[in-house]
Specification:
Shape: elongated
Number of helices: 8
Distance between the termini: 85 Å
Strand order of the largest sheet: 1-2
Helix content: over 70%
Strand content: under 5%
């Protein structure tokens, strides 16, 4: 009698998480877009960074929940029920945390906060561009300073740099009041308004940032004094292209120049000391 051996088919491993696990996952995504996106825009300096910030939050939520579900799945001897329950519990914790944070600071408040910060950052970009243009024209060199119209061109760029630098200072100083006013117009409750205004200086590090722009302001003022000194006393100085310096024929002007130079160098050193702290 002929015998036939049937090929044994191994049992198929059940999935770690069942279909019911999709429900908290979908809710988590929705909650993050409703409450997490406004927070991401406040915390980030650009839309690209905000998108990365939100993606990181989503990834962290799924990764942590998935790892806990995998652990429960293993402990429960490949129990899909255990994996689904563990995943849902952790995901629910994320949902509650994000929702609670969002309710404490509603999206309308985050939007106002974002707009105020964006206003400051926009002025900082303009100030940086103006400073770069000034540096392109003058920088740390004096080449061409004796060309007709050169001092005037540098003074024009300096005026723009001073104005944009001052706009940053004014915007930063006015930001707490602007934030409070915007939150009030958005109907945000008083306790939330007070908290966000208190947190503003910490979030934007304004005290430290203001020091940098104050130092830049003093440096610009010293540079203006230098250009004015040259502009107001034609014929009493000449540019030595070989030695890369300005020679004065008047001792009093030379002393004024030395004083201005010390002030400018002091401002530059202070700016270099503050720059690493800002980063």
């Amino acid at each position: 009698m002929t015998q036939y051996s049937a090929q044994q088919v191994p049992d198929k491993k059940p999935a770690t998480i069942g279909w019911l696990g999709l429900l908290p996952a979908v809710i988590f995504i929705v909650v993050e877009f409703v409450y997490g996106w406004p927070e991401a825009k406040v915390q980030s300096r650009s839309l690209a960074y905000a998108e990365g910030y939100l993606a990181g939050r989503l990834l962290a939520g799924f990764l942590i929940s998935g790892l806990v579900a995998l652990l429960a799945y293993g402990i429960g001897r490949r129990s899909q029920v255990a994996g689904t329950i563990a995943f849902s519990i952790v995901m629910t914790w994320f949902i509650v945390t994000v929702t609670w944070s969002g309710l404490q600071t509603p999206p309308a408040a985050r939007q106002v906060e974002h707009d105020v910060m964006q206003s400051i950052e926009g002025k900082q970009v303009a100030a940086a561009n103006a400073a770069r243009e000034l540096d392109r024209l003058s920088g740390n060199h004096l080449d061409g300073i004796d060309r007709p119209g050169e001092i005037e061109a540098r003074l024009k760029a300096l005026t723009t740099a001073e104005a944009t630098n001052q706009e940053v200072l004014d915007a930063g100083d006015a930001a707490p009041a602007d934030l409070a006013k915007g939150l009030d117009q958005a109907g945000v409750r008083q306790s939330t308004r007070d908290r966000l205004v208190r947190e503003f200086n910490t979030k934007v590090h304004w005290s430290r940032t203001r020091q940098i722009y104050d130092v830049k302001k003093r440096g610009f003022a010293s540079l203006r004094s230098f250009y004015r000194l040259l502009q107001d006393h034609p014929g009493k100085w000449r540019y030595n292209s070989e030695a890369k310096r300005i020679d004065f024929s008047d001792d009093a002007l030379l002393e004024q120049f030395k004083t201005i130079q010390r002030e400018l160098l002091t401002a530059l050193r202070q700016q270099e000391q503050l720059a690493p702290q800002q980063r």
